[in-house]
Amino acid sequence: MEEIDGNILVAMSLAKFGIRHMFGVVGIPVTSLANRAVSLGIRFIAFHNEQSAGYAASAYGFLTASPGVLLTVSGPGCVHGLAGLSNAMANTWPMIMISGSCDQNDVGRGDFQELNQIEAVKPFSKLSLKATHITEIPNCLSQVLNSASSGRPGGCYLDLPSDVLHQKISKEQALSLLHNIQTQNNPHSSLTTTTTTTITTTRISEAVSLLRHAQRPLIVFGKGAAYARAEHSLKKLVESTGIPFLPTPLGKGLLPDTHHLAATAARSLAIGKCDVAVVVGARLNWLLHFGESPKWSNDVKFILVDISEEEIQLRKPHLGLVGDAKQIVEILNKEIKDDPFCLGKTHPWVEAISKKVKDNVEKMEAQLVKDVVPFNFFTPMRIIRDAIVGLGSPAPIVVSEGANTMDVGRSVLIQTEPRTRLDAGTWGTMGVGLGYCIAAAVASPDRLVVAVEGDSGFGFSAIEVETLVRYQLPVVVIVFNNGGVYGGDRRSPEEIDGPHKDDPAPTSFVPNAGYHALIEAFGGKGYLVGTPEELKNALSETFSARKPAVINVIIDPYAGAESGRLQHKN
Ligand code: ADP
User: Fold this and answer.
1) Atom of ligand 1 minimally distant from the CA of 90
2) ∠ at Cα 362 (360, 367), nearest 5°?
3) Partners of 399 in the β-ladder
4) How many helices (H) and strands (E) does the chain have?
5) In angstroms, what CA-CA distances link 17 with 23, 63, 202?
6) pLDDT one-digit tens code per residue, 156-190
7) What is the ipTM for the molecules in this complex?
8) Helix axes 403-412, 378-391, angle to 10 degrees
9) What residues contact residue 355 under an 8 Å CB cut-off, 6+ apart?
10) Is the CB of 92 under 6 A from ligand 1?
């Protein structure tokens, strides 16, 4: 009778649950697991560092609405993977981390890479399970996959001790275990089964009445709405009511930034003066100034739409609608349809927003049109924006990180399609760039991926350019190289003292570092650019080649502000 071991059973279970991609770093005791998964048709993207692989798994969960899977070795591998797991939790994205762990018989004896991994992952996961026997593998996997994507999505963890991976059962028993897993535990059915919206009709009528009678209504949407694929229902809501809208950074593109009701360029006015704001799939956290004055008006009434009851309880909005963003917006649309209303272009609020948008866009353009050399942040960003717009549809996925690079990029780069922007997100996580690029290329093979990142963000995981080359992923990484974190040495003379005063500043890197040469070491294309013409040529070549490339853009080290737009926090 044919026998199979734990490694094979994990691979069979993953394949059965519809997992198509895994990210990770192999080693003891999970190498065979990865090979088995590949032999069953799962694409394994092997990274250099679990941190980056974990970031990839988290973003993959967002982009595909099914859990990204990270595989790590035991002990230190699991600890490195916590970066990705915690990032998934902070952003509410579905992912699972599977880590090998030491033999259960050796626990407490100082075994190779021993760690109580279940305890270590607890603060960063919705559910953490250990399979203590091979027969528990299918059920444990099913549970973590299901939990990761049900309700408010997040990170989950599965611990696989090495003795469990080496245990054997008959293939027949394995198939029977897999067969017995209920279909409701299948992660791919979980999104629809667990987010069914059950809100009372009175709440819906109240929400519509608030919007109907508002003087200055606003629709805000975030990455929860993007995750819920709410773009069509939101478009209908915006266009049927004529209410201006404001996306959060990762909500950008659900409706095009160029839409006539987009209030992005009039953000301060929109949030400062609105009297009713329906906020869909976005937390009233630091990114939205906690929904408080002085950024928001004191008497704004929030209608909060969120999958998480806990979130609604925390924020205490005027009205909370718990459920899936797409479903709730559809219900709102239905309710409005029976008695439609539309503000129209001449409504004073719509006019005020449009005028502010026009003024601010003109001001920004005046800054952007100048060709400043050595480069500030604006000149190269404009050139990149125009090159991206020139690509048309399908629009590339833009990955962005860094203080000034991300801030300036968010205002200048134009998003026209949903889920085409990934950035440092809720946690302000730096170092996500390469992992996100790889996830995006794997999850959306029809799209080019363009990373626009600071040299500091790039440096966290720069070695993963080898991964780009190895898998020949269509990713162009543009590094805004200003020689350090925020720029060069920005210390005042009083700050430069003591026995180590001759050391480089904590904020500075080697000036004019040759980041483009890094990818050339692996056979990718590198470009060093310092003028508009050089940048345009590099973009034109790399965008049409759709091959791994790094464009090293030399920026004036004194351009931009320390801490970007968060100076008050530093
Ligand atoms: P942003 O960074 O864009 O402001 P946040 O991460 O702060 O977005 O908020 C996303 C919110 O979306 C979270 O509170 C999460 O619970 C919620 N969410 C996740 N999935 C859904 C969904 N399917 N429908 C509605 N809300 C969702």
Assistant:
1) 6
2) 95
3) 422, 451
4) 23, 19
5) 16, 18, 39
6) 999 999 999 999 999 999 999 999 985 444 544 44
7) 0.99
8) 50
9) none
10) yes
